[in-house]
Amino acid sequence: MEAPKKLGTHQKALSINLDASVFGSFAEIGAGQEVARWFLRVGGASGTVAKTISAYDKEVSDDLYGAGTRYVSKQRLQAMLENEWQQLLTQLQVTRGGFTKFFSFVDTISARNFSGTNDCHGWIGLRFLRMAGGQPNDVILHVNLRDPSNLQQQEAVGILGVNLLYAVHHNLASPEEFLAGVFEDISLHRMEIDAVELSGPAFDRWNRQEIHALLVAGDYAQAVVFPADNNFLPANELLYKRALVLAPGRFGHLDLLNKDVIATTLAELPPDELKESKGALGLFCLSPTLVAADAKALPLSETANVVVALQKLGYGVILFRAPELYTMSAFANRYTKYRIHFAIGLSTLVRVMADRYKELAGSRLEGIARLFVQNVRLIVHPIPATELEAWVSTTGIAGWTWTSSDGLVHADQLEPPHPLDHLYKYLLAESLILPRKILPAGSALNQAPPEGGNLQNVHRAGSE
After folding, report:
1. Which of 187, 107, 101 is nearest to 139 (CA)?
2. Cα 312 from Cα 284, distance rounded (Å)
């Protein structure tokens, strides 16, 4: 069976214009009227466009959509969507409601300013009917504009808007098909979709958590945030000017960091680091790519289940495309200048140091440098020596030795193989790696050692 022919943006816009059942309005603020422009220039626009408006002036915008919200925000987008939809129905429901699938497309965009100093992002919304007289459905997207120029960003917004309007009428068989249609002819280096909200009968059977995870798994975003209260927000809102504690892991073995790991790290943040920030925030970090030999991707359902389980511990989750800590910190540094504290276990620390970083030209030295150059600290929590031994033996990492105290191994009790041990000792001495000491009640570490006594047991990776 021959695959259906791919349509370009021009053909998609024209096909909608020639569909007599689809009719609606466009309201765009920020990056010009790039979506409406496509429908106006391909021909047959009178078959689709009831109205197009661009309320650039703030007073005009406030008069139409109400004051009191930021102009590029979800709240402003929702006000625009409600206003335009009600106006459309008031004007056309009586004359066209019996045979028309109405829609209202709105966006509010902050494209690159003249000096290039702004956060280039925006909110895009679409309310539509799948059948005349039916119940409305809503799509709300947050996008990050990654193109280097204003003109290129406008172009990307225009393509996305046409894709979205076409997809809601032709690509609703599954979330995968829908998002692929929305993102067609747009690459990740041009734009990211990092928050999506779908409502209405067209999306009733779709799993909300899985759709959000699909943004990362499908290469539509570098990362997405699942706040603890499950009210999806883009990273530029949640992370903005925050001091961050990030707890990455695989959450299936000894990397499972419970809420106490984040809580204790948050409690111990130096007050001077919080002075001018908007407060501290703790988040679990997860990647759908397992750090394993086969680099197997987690199924969406499993990823969503892990996210839900972590949220129940009282903290949000950031889902990243890549598992390396330096990519996580680089992402967070888009939105905050404050120090990033990684709360990790010893096994994660060993992975960070032992990784060859083959994807980087400078291999291990470049990977470690990329991490610590970003105002990062690794707060390393100890794990039982028996678990570290088991983990090392199953991963095939050799040459690491350690001592233990009361059955626990702390970061300063590790010794990597030579010559990596020199770099490791330097990172410890510079307090870039900070061992978090946990002394069990009644521990021998709380007592003076017997004369000539040795309270530590020495272990070698791979030894009996």
Report:
1. 107
2. 12
The answer on pLDDT for 302 being more than 90 is: no
pLDDT in tens, 75-127: 999 999 999 999 999 999 999 999 999 999 999 999 999 888 899 999 999 99
Report d(CA 367, CA 324) in Å as an integer.
Answer: 9
Which residues touch 416 (CB under 8 Å, ≥6 apart)?
353, 354, 399, 400, 423, 424
Nearest one of 423, 264, 409 to 352, comparing CA atoms:
423
| Token representation of residue 387 | 């678990």
Cα separation of 443 and 458, whole Å?
18
Strands 433-435 and 376-381: parallel
Q: Whole-angstrom Cα distance, residue 22 to residue 13?
A: 12
Residue 110's closest CA among 124, 102, 99, 121?
121
Helices (H), 396-441: 420-429
268 within 8 A of 288, measured Cβ to Cβ: no
Among residues of the chain, what percentage have pLDDT more than 90? Answer: 68
Task: Give CA torsion, residues 292, 293, 295, 301, to 10 deg.
Answer: -50
Can you tell me the mean pLDDT for 407-429?
95
Please report the DSSP string for 369-389 in residue order.
HHHHTTSEEEEEEPEEHHHHH
Burial letters 421-445, b for 16+ CB under 10 A, else e:
beebeebbeeeebbbbeeeeeeeee
Alpha helices in 292-419 (DSSP H): 300-311, 325-332, 346-354, 363-372, 385-395
Domains of the chain: 9-206 (3.90.950.20), 235-460 (3.40.50)
Length of the chain: 464
Per residue in 237-278, pLDDT (tens digit) is 999 999 999 999 876 543 444 567 888 899 989 888 888 899
Task: Determine how many CB atoms are found less than 10 A away from the CB of residue 198.
Answer: 18
Q: Where are the alpha helices (DSSP H) in 239-345?
A: 259-267, 271-274, 300-311, 325-332
375's tokens? 């105002």
Q: Which are the contacts of 179, defined by CB distance < 8 A and separation ≥ 6?
A: 193, 196, 211, 214, 215, 218, 220
Angstrom distance (rounded) from CA 124 to CA 109: 8
Instruction: Tell me the CA distances in angstroms from 260 to 282, 284, 344, one per residue in order.
Output: 11, 12, 12
**Cα 422 versus chain centre, distance:** 35
